[in-house]
Amino acid sequence: MDISLILQMIIAAAIAAVMYTIIGAAPGADETATIAPITLVLVLSGIQPAVILAFFISAIIACKLIDAVPVSIAGIPAGVMSTPMVEHAMILKKNGLTDTSIRKIASGAIIGTIISIPVSLFLAQALIPFAMVIKKYGDPVFFIGAVLLALMSKKRWIALASILPFAILIQGLRYMYWGIGVVPEGTNVFISFFLGITIGPVILTLFEMLNKDKRDSMPRFDKKTIYLKKGDKINKFPNPFKILTKKEVGYSALASLIGSVTFILSPVGMTTFFGELFASGTKDPVEKASIAVSTMEALAQATYISGTLIPLIALGIPLSPMAIGPANPLFNAPPVYNLENNMHHLLSTSDFVWATLIGAVIASVFTFYIAVKYSQEICTFVFKRIPHEAMLGLFFSLVLLLAFIDAGWINIAGVLLIGIVSGVLFRLGVNYGVLFMTLYSAPWIIKMLSIL
User: Fold this and answer.
1) Helix (H, G, I), strand (E, B), or coil: what is residue 338?
2) If pLDDT is split at 50, 70 and 90, which confidence band does 235 have?
3) Please, how many CA atoms are within 13 Å of residue 290, restricted to the half-sphere of its CB?
């Protein structure tokens, strides 16, 4: 690997760290909706795969690190993965420990990063001998994954019932495009459908706003007043191992190991389950909350890293909720990447190691320091100067552009249809993992239904 490529990776990782330190602090900045479109644009731009991977790793680590700020200060989750921490973070806030909450969550993320990277690289190498067998049965594996994720969700029966109809919708649109000649027969329109699912709730809300009765019935609120309590300043670089107690370090490390091994399962479900499990033996509410937030963040960070690296290095197919969600453009971004030609095939083991380490180190050092030292200032700036709606509007317009590039004007209507349906299903309790795995397995599902 030459010096110029390493320099490009460092610059890309630095840009991602700065960008997602700001974006990640915004309330509701879901990781899939904010990271996947930008990563996709980079892939389609023809940038070196190692540079994109360094950018992506830096982005997910920075995004998860900084979500300590809105959760701890305002009790508002930055993304889906930070939702389980809100209740415990508010307990710390009520006890005047907002700064402690931020430091505990950010330190847990650092532990998750430190543990998950070597574990992920080891597991990826261990799975390589079985890669061909797993890939051979990739389509039914995606279907089984959709069923398993549905069974693990709270609304399991709705999730299960939605798989076949949603698969029919996906393939129905593809066959229609082939029939009217929008795209050549056999062309797999994928990216725009994937993004339509990603911002489905946003699309559904926008359509609801066109209904006057619905719009008039919506509750109105005055401007929200958020009180930010000033905490103690940190003058030197914080040490996560001193911020956390020995028990919290131990639980966070164990949670990170579990999250890395169970990369194929739902990150939100695993985070909630093990975070509550490890904290359940502690009676003191403050200590319990501290253990919960640090453990949850460590596990969440570990699932993000392992869920990206293990399928990417070992398989080349997105066989995890993380790989199917935010990391999907690393696997499948036609015409640049597809399941037969993506980063798995283009990068060597040393490329993966260098890109991961550069992205992880830069994001961890920069964002951890910023999150702990300047949390109040960041939160104030984001709440005052960066409207949530502006970011959603930016990503929505990007989705429409990519829909047009994928299959012309008619595909914009197709993506809106997918967005409405997936938005309704999401509100009913069907999680993104089920929808994404159904998207992947739709051709196989329809093929099997035609045989019956």
Assistant:
1) strand
2) low
3) 22
Q: Are 20 and 57 in contact (CB under 8 A)?
A: no
Pair 375, 343: CB distance under 8 Å: no
- The neighbour count for residue 86, using CB atoms within 10 Å, is 16
The identity of residue 279, as a single letter, is A
Name residue 379's amino acid.
C
Burial class (CB in 10 A: 0-12, 13-18, 19+), 268: buried
Q: Name the residue ranges covered by the structural domains of the chain.
A: 3-217+233-451
CB 81, CB 32: distance < 8 Å: no
Q: Which amino acid is at 166?
A: F
Contact (CB, 8 A) for 442 and 434:
no
Average of per-residue pLDDT across 87-93: 80
Type of residue numbered 426: F
Count Cβ neighbours within 10 Å for each residue of 284-323 and write b for 16 or more, e otherwise: eeeebbbbbbbbbbbbbbbbbbbbbbbbbbbbbbbbbbbb
Element (H, E) at 349: helix 349-373
Q: What's the pLDDT at 231?
A: 57
Q: Is the pLDDT of residue 318 over 70?
A: yes
Q: Can you give the pLDDT at residue 369?
A: 87
With bands split at pLDDT 50, 70 and 90, how would you rate the model's confidence at 339? confident
Pseudo-torsion of CA 5, 6, 12, 16, nearest 10°?
A: 150
* Tokens read off for 55: 């950018």
The span from the CA of 138 to the CA of 30, in Å, is 27
Torsion of CA 99, 104, 105, 109, to 10 degrees: 140
The residues that bridge with 337 in the sheet, in sequence order, are: 333
Torsion angle of alpha carbons 233, 237, 238, 239, nearest 10°? -160
Cα–Cα distance for residue pair 91/184, rounded to 1 Å: 57
Beta-carbon count within 10 A of 171 CB: 17
CA atoms within 13 A on the CB side of 257: 6
- Asked if 107 contacts 253 with a C-beta cutoff of 8 angstroms, the reply is no
Beta-bridged to residue 147, according to DSSP, are none
Handedness of CA 207, 218, 227, 231 (dihedral sign): negative
CB contact burial 131-161 (16+ within 10 A = b; e otherwise): beebbeebbebbbebbbbbbebbebbeebbe
Mean of pLDDT over the chain: 83
Residues 24-33 pLDDT 10s: 776 656 676 7
Q: d(Cα 210, Cα 215) in Å, to the nearest integer?
A: 7
